[in-house]
Amino acid sequence: QVQLVESGGGLVQPGGSLRLSCAASGGDFGVNTMAWYRQAPGKQRVQVAYITTSGWTNYAGSVQGRFTISRDNVKSMVYLQMRNLKPEDTGVYYCNKESGPFSSWGQGTQVTVSS
């Protein structure tokens, strides 16, 4: 099974940028469509973007045009470049497969957008 470790979060002002990273180890990373998810305080975890093994991407409407997902299959990494951040982007961000069965969830990385 793939183990996942997210990093790169932080506190940023509205309009700022962050780049999140997800390191995957073990399992079969290279054959899975991977995704980033966000869990806002008191809300369910939602998917914000996914990327197929060949690099085709899809985004939630709320982040379209602001976020860019990418992956490095050699390094077993998934990235999320976030630009023009808004307060509603605040939450804990996780990476995992795009669909089940999911790998065990990592600890996530906190993103806080606030002035």
Short précis:
This protein is mainly beta. It contains no helices and ten strands. 30% of the residues are buried.
Count of alpha and pi helical runs: 0
Form type: globular
Largest sheet: 6 strands, mixed
Helix content: under 10%
What does this protein look like?
By secondary structure, the protein is mostly beta strands. 0% of the residues lie in helices and 49% in strands. The protein is built from no helices and ten strands. It has strands at residues 3-7, 10-12, 18-25, 34-39, 45-51, 57-59, 67-72, 77-82, 91-97, 109-113. The strands form two sheets. The chain has a six-stranded mixed sheet, with no helix packed on it. Strands 1-3-8-7 form a four-stranded antiparallel sheet, with no helix packed on it. β4 and β5 (45-51) form a beta hairpin. The chain is globular. The mean pLDDT is 95.
Helices and strands in order:
Elements: E1 3-7, E2 10-12, E3 18-25, E4 34-39, E5 45-51, E6 57-59, E7 67-72, E8 77-82, E9 91-97, E10 109-113
Parallel strand pairs: 2-10
Antiparallel strand pairs: 1-3, 3-8, 4-5, 4-9, 5-6, 7-8, 9-10
Features:
115 residues; mainly beta; six-stranded mixed sheet; four-stranded antiparallel sheet
